[in-house]
Amino acid sequence: MDKVIITCALTGAQQGKEANPNLPTQPEEIIQQAVDSWRAGASIIHIHARDRHNRPTSEVGIFRQIADGIRTRRCDAVLNLSTGGAIAGLPLEDRIAMVPALLPEIASFSAGSGMMGRWNPQKACWERQFNLVQSYDDLAFIARTMLKHGTKPEMEVYDLGMVNNIDMLLEAALLKPPLLINLVTGIPGQSLKPTVENLAYLVGRLPEDSCWLISSIGGRNHWRMMAAALAMGGHVRTGLEDNVYIEKDDLARDNAQLVEKVVGLVRLVGREPATSAETRALLKLRGSEQSTRCT
Question: Has domain 3-290 been given CATH number 3.40.50.980?
Fold first, then answer.
């Protein structure tokens, strides 16, 4: 494919300004960086929300404030709202509440369970560990909610077992092709190591006609895995949620700077960034006029 969908993940549910003071946490910061990233070439904006204490939240009102703020600035980016607050201990019912309330075009959907964490040999302990625990009933509940409200799930895949789960959800008619699948690499623990071999293996086992992208966590592997995905015909994700550096030991000034670098890489391999309209056509989305509501 000549066109590349660039997703920008502005802020996540883990690190904050201690990792990079330019990481946006409050609604106005998130809105401004969303618009700037769209202008730089991102066609999908992936959104987490934070409360006034900069803690992750699934409060619908804050998501609404962010989405409305983006739209009132005449930004037609596809909005991808996160349901991934499990790391912050947010209940499933709260995490999925913005789907019926705000009708986003896309929402994230972790395709299974997993354990994440890092062993520190100096301290002889596990650090930053968390468990993402979801039953098949949970997966079916998320899938039915998104299907009912016309939201396309972005399936978050950390290992091959989650691809198997996607196959079962397809068999149960709980997912509607074409699928959007985000292959997440580089998180310590039960996540694929960021290698070209692992990426090629996983891509070869995705359901037919899937539209896939790569997320590679951390500055060390972020750019080289993106280059591999582009060479393979895939799509890409960048943003301060995934990587706080523009170069080695050089913190990014904002999300737009990361997107600008991605656009250069896309064109270097002979491809072109997809516009928001082209992204909607590729993914068969319903269009911004029916997406996240604005006041």
Answer: no
